[in-house]
Amino acid sequence: MARVQNPTTTTLGYALFATRWLQAPLYFGLVAAQGVYVYKFFKELWTLILMCVGGHATETYVMLAVLKLVDVVMIANLLIMVIVGGYETFVSRIGLQGHRDQPEWLSHVNSNVLKVKLATAIVGISSVHLLQMFVDVHHTSHHALLWGTVIHMAFIASAAILAYMSGPMVAQTDRAHGDRSPASAPAEAARPREHGHAGRQQEKPDPETQAATPALPRQPDPDADAEARVRAAGFPARKLLEDFDEQHPRGFDREAVARLGKADFVTARRNVVLVGPTGTGKTHLAVALGVRACQAGHRVLFATAAEWAARLADARAAGRLDAELTALDDHPLLIVDEVGYTPLDPAAAGLFFQLVAHRYERASLIVTSDRPLGRWDEVFGPSAPALTDRLAHHADVVRLDGDSYRTRRATSAWAD
User: Which of 79, 154, 184, 399 lies in the 20 to 30 Å Cα band around 413?
Assistant: First the structure.
């Protein structure tokens, strides 16, 4: 039985949640502080240039001046991380999805990641300060050197403890997510389809690379209901995140995929857009995320863009397009594969817009395409701006760069 919410409690909760905007002026104040550091940087740089041109700059002076500039830049980096990441985490989403200059770390920022990154930045700043003291050791007292070293070691210890504590927090979240009992769903008939994408990893990853990047989350234990949902989803083949060749794409946001592998984006009604050249593993990741969603208790449907266009066109011809869109609401996740591979006529483009608009902030989509959102006008024509605006508003855009996995395997086999 659905729980009836108290209107007074709901209104009070919304009012309390709205108080987050009180933090907005604080971040704009930090923007002003960023401007102060920009002024300080160029003032120090101008002084250094004048000293060098005048021949009054010793090697020690140049080194100390450069370290001051590095110190200012690192503090400015810390500020921008706090400004953008803090605002995105605690106030409101900035909506940079799909922007070509979106910072890599912003796509997976949260309060826990932000704390670790800030601690690391503080250690770096402290290292520069300590190096300045040792470079100018003849003008630095032993007492100052001692305390500078002790404080720096304290920063290192604090950062190490914080990083160590973040691991159990994430593990506890994963366990809590895995303990949720999935909802049962009836099986549906699905057409099998031959489709190959990035396959099982062939080489052992380099230990340093593996330590520097997060491992993809492990596959939850299967159950009968989850297997029924996987079979009903119509996947062309069963693909797993564990089988994805992480070493193949040249550009690949592992942290974003690891986060998406928890399937929380489906509950949050967010979308996922996988963009990259042919053969970089977009379909593999789409299917693998769909399998994870099935295992988390969600019903999923998979089809190519051409198949979705045909399905919606048939529904419109039968006069039941609205009923078809409403029926698809029973599936919290739809996967649209190969957008851009097959040309769409204006009527099909209009149907896709209706699908995206109907599911906007209501349910999730995973879309794979060989071209970025800015070029979707080549596929959808005039409806592209409105379509991509709704699709990318609440979306994680994952870019995969590299050569075709299949071509590489074929070339390697021919060479052998």
Answer: 399
Q: Comparing 302 with 255, which gets the higher pLDDT? A: 302
Identify which of 339, 360, 253, 235 has the alpha carbon closest to the alpha carbon of residue 294: 235
- Provide the 3-class DSSP secondary structure of residue 94: coil
Element counts in the chain: helices (H) and strands (E): 17, 5
Q: In sequence order, what are the residues at sequence separation of 6 or more whose Cβ sits closer than 8 angstroms to the Cβ of residue 214?
A: 254, 255, 258
| Contact call for residues 78 and 122 (beta carbons, < 8 A) | yes
Strands 333-339 and 300-304: parallel
The identity of residue 27, as a single letter, is Y
Q: How far is CA 140 from the centre of its chain?
A: 45
Beta bridge partners of 368: 274
Largest CA distance in the chain: 88
Q: Taking a C-beta distance cutoff of 8 angstroms, is the pair 306, 349 a contact? A: no
| Chain Cα centroid distance, residue 245 | 18
Residue at 91: amino acid letter? V
Which residues, in sequence order, are bridge partners of residue 304? 337
Token pair 């690949």 is found at 252
Task: Put residue 402 in one of left, alpha, beta given phi > 0 → left and psi -120 to 50 → alpha.
Answer: left
pLDDT tens across 323-340, in order?
999 999 999 999 999 998
Q: Distance between CA 186 and CA 229 in Å, rounded? A: 8
Q: What is the pTM of this model?
A: 0.49
8's enclosing H/E stretch is: helix 7-18
